[in-house]
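Batch job 17 of 40 flagged for manual review because the log was empty.
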Amino acid sequence: MRSGLSCMGLTIAFLLALAGMAAACHEEGKVGPYNVSFEMNTTEDYRVIVETIPMEGVMSDGIDYINYNLTVDSPDSFVYLFITRYNGSMDTSINANHRIVSDLLADLACADPKIFQPLIDGHAGVLGYCEFPSGVLVTCASYSPDAVGESTSPRGMTNCRYISTFPWETTRDMLASIHVEVPVEDKELFLRAYKNYTSGAGQEAAKASNSGTVLGAGTSKNQAMEGSSILKPVKIGRGG
């Protein structure tokens, strides 16, 4: 009898594991000039869309930028990924990402948000979340996929901002697997700008701690966040 129950338990566990594997869908495609890939670990029907027309603008300090946007849309949840390319070297320190995430959460009217410091796409980032009375969890994150000098004076010319209302496990796995590949020509352009920045007189070096916690597949929400407290769309993939 015990042997039969054990076998049934293993069978159920195996089927559940297969269901989990089937639920994870690899998404990959172009978002503007960037190659973007990530895993969607969800059983919800969803679609991935990219805005075909980027939004251009100018910052108050005169630096031009271009926004490229991706959306993961489902009946009950969404993810927004905003990739901003600046025409110049920008501060990508923990403090800078903290301000971005704090502003995103404030715009969403989040009360008492929790903000932490994980590694995202191999780079130091900031992640924050809050839970509304309805039970909806909103997670925001910010990092730079081309950041250099992260131990001293971190700079980059690309920023990725992320807003998700998917359950934590789906959000965690997407952030743990996301990769934004910066074009080679942009990398070369930025390295020249960074060299000029680091050799220029009067630079304001952002001194911030950039240690982080890697978001692993077995990591709970709180464990992953304990590193610090501080359109015309075109479909590029479909899951579910």
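Reviewer: the log was empty due to a logging misconfiguration, but the result itself is present. DSSP finds five helices and 14 strands in the chain. Unflagging and moving on to job 18.
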